[in-house]
Structures are given as C-alpha cells and as structure tokens.
Amino acid sequence: MDVGVGVIFQNPGGRSDRETYKHDLRLGELAGELGFRSLWGVEHHFDGYTMCPDVLQFLSYYAGRCPNMDLGAMVVVLPWHDPMRVAEQISVLDHMCDGRFVLGLGRGLAKNEYEGFGVDQNSARERFVEAAEMILTGLERGWCEYDGQFVKQTRRDIRPSPFKSFRGRTYAAAISPETFEIMARMGVGVLIIPQKPWDVMEKEMSDYRAFYKKANGTDAPAPIIAQWIFCDEDVARAEELARKYIGAYWNSVVEHYSLKGDHFSKIKGYEAYRDIQAQANAPGGVDQMVEFFMSIQIWGTPQMCLDKITNVMERMGGGALNCLFSYGGMPWELAEGSMRTFAQHVLPELRSYRSQSLLSLAAE
Questions:
Q1: Residues 110/256, Cβ–Cβ less than 8 Å
Q2: Does the structural domain 2-363 have CATH classification 3.30.200.20?
C-alpha cells in the first residue's frame, strides 16, 4: 500500500507562522527518512486553518530534497487560478521531480477564500469543470485552448512540454454526490477527505465507479484516502491527545468554513453542505460533530491504528493512504512521536499489504 504524509501548516494560534513552517517542513523531511512513499500539500488562504497558498511551489521544494518520494497536491483549487498558468506550473513541477507528481484538483468551499479572490462562489462548479477540462486536455496534447463561459483561452503551447501522461495520476476531492459524477465523466480518481459515515461513502463510491465505467469503459482507479492520525503505545494517552488535537482541528474547520452560518443555503452548487451547516448550528452540534469526526479518524495504539486503517481501506477499495500527523496546534514533539511510532510499528505492515507505489499502480 502506498502510504504518504500530508503537511498542512496549521496554526490556530499560540505560536508564530514562522515556527509553524519550521515545524512542518521538518515533518516533511522526516517523512522521507522514515520510509513514507509520498508527500502531500493542500492549498488554503488568508488564515491559520492551513497556510500553504501555493501547493505546487511547496512540492517543488521537496522535488529535490526527497528524490525517492512521490509528490501530491491535495488539492489545487482551480476557480482561484488562471488555468493556463496552472497547466504550466504542473508541467514545470513534473519535469523537476522526473514525473513523480500526482495531480489533485478541487473547487474549494470557504466563503472567506472566494471573497478574498473576488470570485463569485455561485459559479464555482462551472469554473472548476471548465478549468479542469482545459488543463487535463492540455496536459495530454501539449497545448491549451478553450472557449467556455468563464475560461477563455487562445491556443498556446505548454512549455516545457508535458513529457508523461497524467491519466491515472489525477484525482479530485469530492464531498457532494454531484461532484462524484463530474469527476467520473472527466476520468479522474477520487481523493477522499472523510467527513461522512463510511457506509454513506461506500454507496457514493459505488455510484462513482458505475459512472466511471459507463463514461470511460474501464474500471475507476482506487481512491486515495486522507486520515488524521495519532499513534501512541499507551491507549489512554492516545485517546486523550487525539481528542484534544483532532477536536481542535475540527473546530478550525467550523471556523474556516463558517459552518455556524446559513450561507450554503444561498450558494448555487453547494446544496450538499446545507445539512452540515444545519448540524453545526444546532445546540451542541459542533460537539457532536467533533465526536463523529473522531470516530472516522485513526488513533490509538499501533495495533488499533492498523486495524482501523485496514478496515477503511478494504471497505473503500483504497489504493493509497495519506496520513496527517500534525494539526490543531500540536507541539512538534507530539507530532514527531506519533509519526515515529506509526512508522516503526504500522508502516511496515501497510507496506507489505501492497508493495507497489501509487504511480506504479497508476501505470498498470
């Protein structure tokens, strides 16, 4: 099984942004030292929720520093970018890392970020689809051209020219059922960032696989699954610290995405989030959401973590696992300790589960 590490630079307060960057950049280096196979970054803007405004720039830093690791974007949020520039940046990064890049795309959710870029969120889905279609087609043929409602691009070459197909190594984050169908039609895989019960996700993945098969005539790629991890040999300590820091992370989600509000009921294309927002607004709703989020993440002793991961991967047909070890303002020593314990006791078992890397699986 391909097992990677996500580095998200979360700073909910209590330390400087500089300290956060030094902390998480060390985490990326440690991932390579401990034998993880891939390194992932995620794009966000304007607050301490995660402070990686340019995920492709972040991954370029590691292209040379970690020559044996695949590099993944979780995700590039297309409605906030000029898609021609994104296509160029993707090609540059892929050349710099010798084809080790795994492309992840998304449309974004936070009102704060859409307003910050002056983009109407009601048009997010259409902007995402047009930009994705142009970029993915352009990366295969070496030039971009598009005449859409929002994306207007005169034919121009991508230079440096893409040297390797992105088919089989392109994924998109999906929460709403409508997005699953869109992704299937575009021939891209699913990046699962768990926010729903696993039985609901099983049904949605089944639908996605059916859409994909119908649209492409082949089986869908196995999904990449992100999980928040806290691993400790003392079960009581593991639960206590997981509850503290995974809980802090979820509270940062509520704040960053303005879940205690009503704006999703007024934004086109985000209907699936209305129930989430209603739950956050209910009495005790955020506390209940924290408990649920805890229940679908990976924490406990090494054996507990291994059992939970195996269960999730088998239920979802997962092809790769993306582990987040640092979040919620967690001190460096706790993140490092959890990561080292996981690498020592859990990682060898997971790597023996399937020996190929994510990119070798995509090439089959």
A1: yes
A2: no
